[in-house]
Amino acid sequence: MILTFSEPKFVNLLLKNIKGTTFRVDKTNRWKVGMIAHMWMHNPCNVRLNPHHIKNDTIYSIEYVLFIPIKGILKIYLDDTYTDIEITLSVKRQKNRLDGIARIDGFKDFAEMKEWFIKKGYTDPAGYRMKRLWFSGYFDNLPF
Per the domain annotation, does 142 fall within a domain? Predict the structure, then answer.
């Protein structure tokens, strides 16, 4: 399935397997573990933006999150029912952990990630149910 990206900086991070995740709203439950993600810079149907294929990778794992960018909160749930919270992370309490999550997603830190989502229109104070898709290629380069 096609997975599009709009930030040029993500291309090299994906090719080097440094960007190991992406956060996506998935209302129709399309993404599943084991699927092949055909990663593209811009949507291949929109030729005006000069789309190009980046690479293919397998969805290794999925986490279910509630992301509230304007409040600086990320809640990770045990499953797709969004009822049992595994952990709630906030800038006030777990900034270092949130910075780590942001770096794996291709950002300098959580502040940059949060601002990126806000600029893209993710401003609802109730937050957004998302899937955090993990790419198998990320695990190929780990030092252990």
Answer: no
